[in-house]
Write a structure and sequence with these properties.
The protein has about 600 residues and is an alpha/beta fold. The chain is about 30% helix and about 20% strand. About 5% of the residues have low confidence.
Amino acid sequence: MVDDSPNPKVHLRFQLLAEFCCCGRRKGNFEQQGECPLQIHQSLPSNFTFIIKVLAYNRITSLSRCLQSLAKADYGQDHVDLHVFIDHFKELNPENQSEILNERIGESHKILEFVEQFSWTFGKKFVHYRTVNVGLQAQWLEAWWPSSDDEFAFVVEDDLEVSPLYYRFLRILISTYYYNPVNFSPSIYGASLQRPRFVAGKHGNKLELDSETRLFLYQMVGTWGQLLFPKPWKEFRLWYDTHKANGIKPILQGMVTTGWYKKMGERIWTPWFIKFIQSRGYFNIYTNFPQQRALSVSHRDAGVNYGRTVGPDSELLDETSLDFNLWEMQPLEGLKWYDFCFSEMIPNRVIRSLIEFESVLSTQSEQRTVLFITLFKTPEPIARNLLCHFERLNVQNYILVGTRSKFLLDLARRGHSVVETESLFDELIKLKFKRFEATNMGSIQEILVKAYCIGKSLELGYNSWLIDGNMVPVGEAFPQNPPYSFVDQDADVLYIRNPPTTMKLRVRQFVDKMAAMANKNSQFRDTTSFRFLAAKCLEEMGVMIKSVNDMKFVKKVEGSSFNHTALDSNKQMIFWPPEANEVTILKKLDAMGMWAIDSDLSCTAVVCHRL
């Protein structure tokens, strides 16, 4: 679980010094700090540490270009250390490959001599020359273990070239999105300076973004100039150790990177990090500059990733081509977030007020149908499995309803809309909605909030489903809206069609009527009877509702009947009672191929749908 608080150092006063802005010179209609020395030290803590990690192998020309570009950057008065990791050449047989062996030794010694003589005046220079060939995966994973939460690593492979502006940009970015508590998010693991190019969840299709966007968040890691934040990297390393030791492979169906892993195996590291990111729901900051420009450019020289030299992927942004305000950082709430399919998601939609409820409900206006999924008695693995099936079926018009918990907030952080029952209940009471008489506060809150959700949805003209989270959809599509409203006698399902415009259904009238009826009839005070209570109230208000026990698409199953027969019964939803044994249900779903999550409780596949 992520730590949702920023680094303790963020309590220092956050500001970008006026002197940094004042030294900018006017060019057109923006401020350009092209020749302004870096003067924003007060916005970062005194123990802020920035380390450059250069990963090299046998390309001395590439390495020279990379180091020269790093040395041309403006570091102001900051102390920046340079760590160069040189991988050893692959083992050769001295008996029949002596000539090649001597050539490899000579190349390695030339690289070592060059790095030793290379002047780095901005901090300490550290050189690590490996004794054996370890490959790109170990080069990345073993390059850094943060010594504190204020230490950052900028990792570059030796065929990269960076802009002289890169460090100033990253420093402001760190100050804005890591140390400023207003813009901090535990979901962000770093920032990539490369130009975003492809959608990993869509077979590597070209990424398309509007020209107005300068900064955005995308789950995909960028290996061509990647800034890493300390906490997520530590978390990844521990996750990697556990999974690698237990023989768990980073297989994520639907991702082009899984194909890379199946072909290249442990020579590459990105599939491991991508699987970790998917399991945690983390994001990376990216830039989107005009005319395919970037602050870090890969020359794509021949090596592990390319069989032959391909050439630069972008144009390098420098002071002479800077025709926009590079230093402007939008508030985090103004940035867009994109998943591996490059579909926009909105994080942290926690509904705690009536205004927030209507706002989220309005996003379902296109389909005019909303699914309220109640999680009060649904175990976390079952709920996450259900959401993976929703992703598979492209079901997006749902709102999760549950009690305040880390689990519910984590679902919201990952882009699911959730109703926090306690907060919404408090607001309803303040607005003098009629109270229910019940034996415990949990029952009162659950009944009142569910009643409000259904009532407000109907008042605004939506078709409304109320479904218990202990279910799984079957088949290739979610059930279409039935032609009539109904309450299922066995499964915890209530469906209400949008009332005709001639019927003026008001949410307060509905909730108050439910409260009055529940207070008169003790059998309705149990939350398990909510669907019958709601159906009876709506009938008295003129809504025609059928009571059924043999719907065409709903099947309730017990432990003994939970088998492939349920899948073959032409039902489109399978339910089980909340009191059913969780382990038994899990095993049954797995045996039927309906268990869609892994040991991390994350989806086993990324499913992208065409727009």
